[in-house]
UniProtKB/TrEMBL annotation:
GO MF terms held by the record: zinc ion binding
Principal cellular location given in the protein's record: nucleus
Source species of the chain: Ridgeia piscesae (Tubeworm)
GO cellular component, one term: nucleus
Protein name: C2H2-type domain-containing protein
Domain C2H2-type: 20-47, 48-75, 76-104
Keyword Metal-binding found: yes
One Pfam assignment: zf-C2H2
Length: 104
C-alpha cells in the first residue's frame, strides 16, 4: 500500500514558494531537503521505523514525536475545552480550526 503525504503543519517545507518537485508524484516542496524527506514515501526506505507499530519515519524529530503517541503523553492542553495533544503544533492547529483563534 502506497502512503500519501499531507502537510501537517506550517513549516519551511510547506512554504508558499515551492520550486522542488517530486518526479514520481509531482508534489512540490520549498527546498531540496524537503523533497529528500518526501522520497521515502515512494521507495519505502525510511531512515527510522517504529519498533511498536512499524510505521516508517523520515526524521529523528518525527520519530520522537511519533513515539509520544504510543506513550500516551499529551502535554499540550487546550485552555478552552481541555482537549490534549502530543505536539504544540497540534494544539495550535486545534485553536485555529476549532476555536477560530490563536492560542494564548
Amino acid at each position: 500500500m502506497q502512503e500519501t503525504a499531507t502537510p501537517r503543519r506550517s513549516d519551511s517545507c510547506a512554504a508558499s514558494s515551492r520550486n522542488h518537485s517530486c518526479s514520481l508524484c509531482g508534489r512540490s516542496f520549498s527546498s531540496a531537503h524537503c523533497l529528500r524527506l518526501h522520497e521515502p514515501i515512494h521507495s519505502g526506505r525510511y531512515p527510522y521505523r517504529c519498533e511498536i507499530c512499524g510505521q516508517g519515519i523520515v526524521s529523528t524529530s518525527n520519530y520522537r514525536r511519533h513515539l509520544a503517541t504510543h506513550a500516551g503523553t499529551r502535554d499540550y492542553k487546550c485552555t478552552l475545552c481541555m482537549q490534549a495533544y502530543t505536539c504544540s503544533w497540534s494544539l495550535k492547529r486545534h485553536f485555529r480550526l476549532i476555536h477560530k483563534q490563536q492560542p494564548d
